[in-house]
Amino acid sequence: MPNSPSDTPRRVTVRRKGPLLVEGPVEVELEDGTVVTSDRFRVALCTCRRSRRYPWCDTSHRDRA
Length: 65
Known about the structure:
InterPro entries: FeS-contain_CDGSH-typ, MitoNEET_CISD. The protein is mainly beta. It has strands spanning 12-13, 20-23, 26-29, 35-38, 42-45.
């Protein structure tokens, strides 16, 4: 996604015991360089790494909250 002065910033919402909520669409670059995309209007990114759908949150954090 190109950066230019006319681009509107993406909003990221941080939750203490939950995922990062990001206004989409988004591209996420993983540690191995793989890029995954979502065209949804809002995505939940896993921060606990328990998700079976990582980097997308599947609410696995609720089991040990």
